[in-house]
Every structure is written in C-alpha cells, then in structure tokens.
Write a structure and sequence with these properties.
There is one protein chain. The chain has helices at 36-44, 65-72, 157-171, 203-209, 218-226, 235-242, 261-269, 280-285, 300-307, 323-331, 345-351, 364-372, 400-406, 424-435, 447-458; strands at residues 2-8, 13-19, 25-29, 48-53, 75-79, 89-91, 96-98, 103-108, 117-122, 132-136, 180-183, 201-202, 258-259, 273-276, 287-288, 292-293, 314-317, 338-342, 356-357, 360-362, 377-380, 396-397, 416-419, 441-444. By secondary structure, it is α/β, with parallel strands linked by helices. It has three domains: 2-242, 4-Layer Sandwich (Metallo-beta-lactamase, Chain A); 258-357, 3-Layer(aba) Sandwich (Oxidized Rhodanese, domain 1); 361-458, Rhodanese-like domain (Oxidized Rhodanese, domain 1). The strands form five sheets. It has a six-stranded mixed sheet with strand order 1-2-3-4-5-6, covered by helices on one side. A six-stranded mixed sheet has the order 7-8-9-10-11-12. Helix 3 packs across helix 5 (218-226).
C-alpha cells in the first residue's frame, strides 16, 4: 500500500493519496486546488489516479476535484447525501472502493456537514482492523468539527451537533484503539477550536485525551463543542457553495504577471485594491495608502478571506520570490482576481512618495497612556476563546473575521487602538480600518501578550 499525507501549513489542511502498488490504482482524498504535487507523486510511483473523494463540501478552501478530474479522468466521489451541480459518484455507508488488495470503505459521519463521510483504509481487503480512518472534519486530533457552519443554510447547529454526537461517539469511537486517525485539518483551522499541532493519532489516544470523545450525554456534547468557537471567516459560505458547483478550472501553469509602475497605477485607478504581503514591520515602515497588510508568513489565505471579497481585483506587493505562491494561496480559496504584482516594490514606493504612509505601532507604555487618557477606542480582535486570558480595560470585542462587517460600530473620527495576541492579526486589522477610511489607527507592538507580561512585571 502507498499512503501519503500532504499537509498545508497555511490552511492547516491535510489531503491524502491512497494507492495499491500491485494494480497501480489510487484515489486522492480532500485535494487542494493546486494539484501538481499529487500528479508528480502519482507519476513517480507509477500510479493512476482513478478517483477523487471529498469527505464533505469544504468551506475553508476550494477543493481540487475538478482539476484532478480534468487531468486524470478520475471520477469524483462525495457522501450519499451530497447534492452537487456536476456528476458525482455517491458513496453510501459501507460502500467499498477497491484499488486492488487495498480497499477504502465508506462510513457516513454527518455533523460538521450533513453529507460528511469518513474513509476506512484497509491495507488488505480481508483485514478485520483498518490501517487508518480518514475522518475529514468529523474528528480532529484533540477536537471535533464545529457543527455551526451550516446553520444559516437550512440545517440548524443543534441538528448538526446531534448528528455529530452520533458520528463521533457511536461510530468513530466504536473503532478499535489501534486504528490510526488522519483528519482533514490541524491546529489553527477555524473548522474547530482546540485542534492539536499533531497531524495523526489513533482512536485509542482520542478516546483517552480528546475532550469531545469523553463519556457524556448528547446535550452535554452539544454544549461543550459549540462553546467558544471562533468566528467563521466571511469566505466560508462562498467556498462551500463553490465546491458544489461547476466552476472555472485552475490551469497547472497558472501565474500572474509582474506589473510596471504604469500598470499598477492603471489597475488602482480602475478600482483594484492592494494586498501588502510583506512582514508587519516592513509594512509599518512604509506602505501604499489603502493597502491591506496580510503577511505571507502566517495564515495568509484564511485571513485574506476575512478582509477581501472574491470579486475584488487585487494588486500584490510581495516579499521577493513569493509572488506566485501568494497568487496560488489566493486561488486556494477561490479568489481568482489577482491581476499581478508590483515588480519592484521599493522603487515604486520611492517614486510615489505622496502615496506612502507609515503605520502607527504603540509600545505597551504608550498604549497605557492613551487608554488612561481615554484618547482611543480600544478594539480586541481576538477570537472568543482567547478572552479568558484577560484583556485591556474598556476594550470592545470585534473578532478579526467580523471586523469588515462591523467597522461601522466604531467612530472613524476618533483614534482607534487595536490589539490581538501577538501583533500579527492587529496589523491586518489596523490596515483594514485605514483602508476603510479611519484616519488614526494604531496597534500594540507584541499584542496582548506583551501587555500582559509588562503588567505582570509591574505588579
């Protein structure tokens, strides 16, 4: 058997290749949209990709099922409850996909979404205990999939939560302890709240240590799983919908062009927005007025989906050599309107001094003085689960994922002070507010962590 996990740190997303060495047949599970790595690996191992299986309609990225089907002729599989706008192979409970001796068996595990399935992987067709279970977003390492993402499209969070309880406690926990667990996401994903940095585990380990797998009633499960979930990024519904539809297929050699100064000026004049993907400090030292800073060194794709919209035309200012990767990361969430990148960012900024501004970043002492003088509106952009550690006095809580929709709750005529845990997200948020017309926005260097450490020393 050939079994490969592909883990994408930027989206905390895992996809899989399962193949039979004897027959050369393989399936790809939960693929991302840039499929070159799967094709290269299959070619190198002499495998034919015969099928593409999605464990559910993903909300946090655009699946690569259309791209793989075009390149390989593979069938596209979803759970039996899936309703798509293109031909699919519906996979019901206990259905088996034979790749030769290697066999994949379907287990319906609804709850994160109604059509969710997990896949039992058997190294030999007659094995009693599967080698592994690919759990999609039903069971994570240390957590389970959140049941509230589809509450707005016809299925309530309560209904999904009760489905998830049955899937986790009565189906997945009924598997032997030795079965390896391979989920679709890891730490950082907004599809759950307590995901581990580990990318694999066992049923036995999850039975022992996963809070959601402990003995409890259905109501207790629903309460503990839904408490403290992070706000869902705005693009999640867009991606979940896109994954059900026929759509444009990404070319294998897709790239975006370098833009001359004139081309940048023309794009901006026609309504394009600027994504500044440079480091937070580099952005703060000097950036184009109105540019939104989502650095490439963090959870860029997911965060882009919080602060831009899918239809916006985007000009990228990127760290040298990262330009095409940044465009690919946009494409992974279906944002296909990156018109190009600034060929020489430093030269462009130098030649357009009237369009350049600096970002205000306050030390903890400076922030304390501003708060004490009631000179700022303080905005805490952390997720709900982070608030238990404390916060600045008088802060208004608006999670970053909600800021674009809720900025009208703030007074643009008053200075704003934004903070997150460490200073990365606050740079995103403050740049978004500036682009939205707020004239005086600062964030805290080092975020709440720095503030908390300074006050612990002081006390």
């Amino acid at each position: 058997m050939i079994f490969t996990q592909y883990y994408l740190d930027c989206l905390s997303q895992a996809s899989y290749l399962v193949g039979d060495e004897t027959t050369g047949q393989a399936v790809i599970v939960d693929p991302r949209r840039d499929i070159e790595e799967y094709l290269d690996d299959a070619r190198a191992r002499g495998l034919e990709i015969v099928g593409v299986v999605n464990t559910h309609f993903h909300a946090d990225f655009v699946s690569g099922h259309h791209e793989l089907a075009r390149e390989t002729g593979a069938w596209i599989g979803f759970g039996a409850a899936a309703a798509a706008d293109f031909p699919v192979r519906h996979l019901g409970d206990d259905d088996r996909i034979s790749l030769g001796d290697v066999t994949v068996q379907v287990m319906t595990t609804p709850g994160h979404t109604p059509e969710s399935i997990s896949l039992l992987v058997f190294e030999h067709a007659d094995d009693e205990v599967p080698y592994a279970v690919l759990t999609g977003d039903a069971l994570f390492i240390g957590d389970v999939g959140r049941p509230d993402l589809l509450a707005s499209v016809g299925v309530t969070a309560d209904e999904l939560g009760r489905m998830l309880y049955d899937s986790v406690h009565h189906k997945l926990m009924a598997l032997p302890d030795a079965v390896r667990v391979f989920p679709a996401h890891g730490a950082g994903s907004a599809c759950g709240k307590n995901l581990s940095t580990e990318t694999q585990s066992t049923i036995g380990e999850q039975r022992a240590f996963n809070y959601a797998c402990q003995p409890m009633s259905e109501d207790e499960f629903l309460a503990v799983v839904t408490e403290g979930q992070p706000s869902a990024p705005a693009y999640f519904l867009y991606n979940a919908t896109l994954n059900k539809q026929e759509r444009d297929v990404r070319d294998l050699d897709a790239s975006v062009p370098a833009l001359s100064a004139g081309a940048v000026e023309a794009a901006l004049a026609s309504g394009a927005v600027v994504h500044d993907a440079r480091d937070v400090q580099e952005y703060a030292a000097g950036h184009l007025r109105g540019a939104v800073n989502v650095p490439a060194d963090g959870r860029m794709a997911e965060t882009v989906g919080m602060v831009f919209t899918p239809d916006q035309r985007v000009v990228v200012i990127a760290p040298e050599g990262a330009e095409q990767d940044i465009a690919t990361r946009f494409a992974r969430i279906g944002f296909d309107h990156v018109v190009g990148y600034v060929a020489d960012p430093e030269a462009y900024l130098v030649s357009h001094p009237d369009d350049v501004e600096r970002a205000s970043r306050l030390t903890v002492a400076e922030a304390d003085r501003a708060v004490a003088a009631d000179a700022v509106q303080v905005v805490d952009i952390r997720n709900a689960g982070e608030l238990a550690t404390g916060g600045l006095p008088g802060a208004v809580h608006i999670p970053l994922a909600e800021l674009a929709a809720r900025s009208a709750e703030l007074d643009p005529s008053r200075p704003v002070l934004v903070y997150c845990a460490g200073g990365w997200r606050s740079s995103v948020a403050s740049s978004l507010l500036r682009a939205d017309g707020f004239a005086d926005v600062s964030d805290i260097l080092g975020g709440f962590g720095a503030w908390q450490r300074a006050h612990a020393v002081a006390s």
